Amino acid sequence: MLAVQQLEAGYGESVILRNVTLEVKQGEVVCLLGRNGVGKTTLMKSIMGVLKARKGRVTYYGDDLTKRTPGQRAKRGIGYVPQGREIFPQLTVFENLLLGLEASPEKGRVVPESAIAKFPVLPTMYGRRGGDLSGGQQQQLAFARALASQPEVLLLDEPCEGIQPSIVDDIRDVIRSIKSDGKTAILLAEQSLEFVKSVGDYFYILEKGSVAWEGNCESLSDEVIRRYLTV
């Protein structure tokens, strides 16, 4: 479905990713692990086209997206919840959700029920500005905004960062719900090992910008965790 092949990317003269290859299949939650600074967010930005790849390819159903813009990738069916949420603080909750429809083939002013049903608190806040929401509520808004276009691939970059445990549980439930439908692929970058093990099907660990290990949950042993994830 979504494949990254020998990807190299970075900022200025610095190379952050080196020969990264991974695959995300339909209906799977693929988790991206690694210590801080190993390139997880850089990889997410490169897949979405926010950061241009220097080498390698990003393909979607065999279609080469490497030179496509973020908008073009979104319209092809890739949704993105960036680290830090990046909602528009001066716009209302409803206006933020409408922006998610820009990537939909059928633009309109009706946010799909499937997007907001997963976060029932949002319709009660439609008139509030995004910047007035709590961190957890902003994360829910960013998630719903990405779901508004009904993507087939969803990129989630640190969705549990800095939010209260109750919202983390809500996000876990949403990911499991999406997974159970079997239609959407998810690439999840997250620091919480407990969280990713509760939702993930397959795991990649980055070290120094390269894939150092990959495997399923059963093979994610204590030795692997100590070697690549323990600080």
Automatic annotation (TrEMBL):
The gene is urtE. Coiled coil: none annotated. It comes from Paenibacillus oenotherae. InterPro entries: AAA+_ATPase, ABC_transporter-like_ATP-bd, ABC_transptr_urea_ATP-bd_UrtE, BCAA_Transport_ATP-bd_LivF, P-loop_NTPase. This is Urea ABC transporter ATP-binding subunit UrtE. NCBIfam families: urea_trans_UrtE. Signal peptide: none annotated. Belongs to the ABC transporter superfamily. Residues 2-231 form the ABC transporter domain. It holds the Pfam family ABC_tran. One of its GO terms (molecular function) is ATP binding. PANTHER family: HIGH-AFFINITY BRANCHED-CHAIN AMINO ACID TRANSPORT ATP-BINDING PROTEIN, HIGH-AFFINITY BRANCHED-CHAIN AMINO ACID TRANSPORT ATP-BINDING PROTEIN LIVF. Keywords: Amino-acid transport, ATP-binding, Nucleotide-binding, Transport. It comes from the Bacteria.
